[in-house]
Amino acid sequence: MSKVYNWQLGRQMEYPHEEAHPQSQFTFVFNINRCIGCQTCTMACKSTWTFSRGQEQMWWNNVETKPYGGYPQSWDVKLLALLEEANAGGQVWNAGSTGQDEADAGPYGVFDGQTIFEAKNPLKDVAQSRVLGYLPSDDEWRAPNIYEDTAAGQGWRPGEYGKTASLPEHDVWFFYLQRICNHCTYPGCLAACPRGAIYKRPEDGVVLIDQSRCRGYRKCVEACPYKKSFYRPTTRVSEKCIACYPRLEGRDADITPDGEPIETRCMSACVGKIRLQGMVETERDGSWVEDPSNPLYFLIREEQVALPLYPQFGTEPNGYYIPPRWVPRPYLEQMFGPGVEQAIERYVCPSRRLLAVLQLFRATRPIIFRFEIIEGEKVHEREVTLPSGESKTLEIFNDTVIGYGRSDREIVRTTVEEPTFERPAQHPNSI
């Protein structure tokens, strides 16, 4: 095992391969608060990539209802239980320590527990097993949207109408979790593959499977903690989300005639405008190049309003989520780490700059590499009660946010206050 630095954990960890990083990293942010569970993203991906024989149970993109839903069923609960069994009582965060001289090195504190690369698999006697994991049964793959809209909680109580849905935490709750491959910095699938068939592209960090080398051992399926690697029985090799890399390259004469990289299929089809994807530049040691004008860097590293999914697994996923504000905090903290309370407070009462950047979600198909803000007039002010109970004044300004593509050409311009257009009537029934 090598020692690599995982900034999400705030410490070094064990990993089967030497440290290596791409020039830039494919990254995305999902705003759970906006998702309506329409599954448009799921079907956009399905109709593009996994509509053939042997792919019937492959869902590279899926939206599952938490806390009971999952694809495969109970994928996260099972792995969390395995980690707890391997390190009973030790899977905890030390949120008050960074573990580094620089406070920004570990923004969520230090994870004192064991990752999937550090925990011994209690189900195996094979000493050289590299990654803690399990193979789902056929039954667990049977339904991609099991327990849809099934809520948790104490139920509705007579005489307390509305209390169960009051903030800051609902008594009866569920939320939609949108999932694709996280194209991790330290992928579990890559670490476990005995054939060396899985690799990260050096130009954008997208994780791919070389199917000419794959022999279908399903070690990647077993090792991926998010279960986003799939075995195809008709070809006897594994397949996974490829981040629609032909669209990222901007080289397709039909879909990218101007050469600008564009969003993946699931991103560009999103009805709820919950998705924002892009690239972040990385240093040779894997740290992110400081760039507050990059919307992804701003949301994740500067504002810290978007958090990684199960960072304690140790893969350093490059998919981030703005947590749902109505869900009990202990549940969110075991899913997104100790930065949940701060992220929700900043989302509930956003800074002027954050409010402008939130308008860029799904505002354009080309990928936004840089943004700038033109300040506008103040249009609203009100008192906001934070989840902590503290009151704060929210000031809303009608700022204009401009997004620029890879060539530094303007690709989108939008305002905080949505404009209203009144068309002249042509006749009494005109719409």
Q: What does it look like?
A:
This protein has 431 residues and is α+β, with helices and mostly antiparallel strands. It folds into 2 domains: 2-348, Alpha-Beta Plaits, CATH 3.30.70.20; 354-415, no CATH class. The chain is built from 10 helices and 21 strands. It has helices at residues 40-49, 75-86, 188-192, 219-223, 245-249, 265-268, 295-302, 329-336, 340-348, 352-357, and strands at residues 2-6, 11-15, 24-31, 62-66, 93-94, 110-111, 152-153, 172-173, 175-179, 198-200, 207-209, 229-232, 237-240, 275-281, 307-308, 319-322, 370-374, 378-385, 391-397, 400-404, 410-415. β18 and β19 (391-397) form a beta hairpin. The chain is globular and about 65 Å long. The termini are far apart.
Strand content: 15-25%
Low-confidence stretches: 98-104
**CATH fold naming of the largest domain:** Alpha-Beta Plaits
CATH-derived architecture of the largest domain:
2-Layer Sandwich
Give the proportion of residues in helices: 10-25%
What structural class is derived from the secondary structure elements? Answer: alpha+beta
Note the overall shape.
globular
CATH class of the largest domain: Alpha Beta
Biggest beta sheet attributes: 4 strands, mixed
Number of domains: 2
The overall average pLDDT, rounded, is 92
